[in-house]
Write a structure and sequence with these properties.
Layout: H1 2-11, H2 17-28, E1 33-37, E2 40-45, E3 48-55, E4 60-64, E5 88-92, H3 95-100, H4 102-117, H5 134-142, H6 144-152, H7 155-166, H8 171-186
Antiparallel strand pairs: 1-2, 2-3, 3-4, 4-5
Helix pairs in contact: 5-6, 7-8
């Protein structure tokens, strides 16, 4: 019952209301399991996440968890961020675009399901090739408690912090970001966790 009400609440959101319902109906036609994850409608095949519906400010999108593995001869898949290794999105500006792209959408969903059936895995080689900024390395070297807490974080949380710190152009900004995140790191939380 809770699952159904969570789905219904998301479908009632004003932002991208009709588009979200249309995308949902196309996905459900592909026999994927539906649940709410990360506050979004998420669809899986045999307990593996396949596709998620995003309602962003300027567009709505279907996010494919292993999108980097999908054949994209049309060039419609978009990398959502410069550090996104696996996720790719199909973006839409309005309901008509979705309606005009039904066959294309189902084709990409089919490719994503087939990737799961084939057991394909994304090679996250960049996760092991992180370069720690000097400011972070200095804190790790000088503060054993911080170093232990950082080491205890999951690899994904570590990566999130390293990318956040490294994205700053100035050394003072990197140091400031590290200082602001210290309490979260000591609490074992990721960058976007409360």
């Amino acid at each position: 019952m809770k699952k159904k009400s969570e789905v219904e609440n998301l479908l009632l959101k004003k932002n991208w209301h009709k588009e979200r319902k249309k995308l949902r109906s196309l996905i459900l036609d592909c026999d994927l399991d539906e649940e709410v994850k990360w506050g979004k409608l998420c669809y899986s095949y045999q307990d593996s996440n396949v596709v998620i519906i995003y309602g962003m400010k300027n567009y709505c999108a279907l996010g494919f968890f292993k999108g980097s593995l999908l054949d994209d001869d049309t060039g419609f898949l978009v990398q959502p961020g410069k550090h996104s290794q696996a996720m790719r999105q199909l973006r839409f500006d309005n309901l008509d675009e979705i309606s005009d792209s039904e066959d294309l959408i189902k084709d990409y969903i089919g490719k994503a399901i087939q990737a799961e059936r084939d057991g394909l895995e994304v090679d996250f080689d960049e996760k092991d090739n992180l370069t720690y900024p000097d400011e972070l390395q200095d804190v790790l070297d000088d503060d054993p408690e911080f170093a232990e807490a950082f080491d205890d974080l999951t690899p994904g949380r570590q990566r999130g912090y390293v990318l956040h710190f490294s994205d700053a152009k100035r050394s003072t900004t990197r140091s400031s970001r590290i200082e602001k995140c210290t309490a979260k790191i000591l609490d074992g939380k990721g960058l976007n966790e409360r």
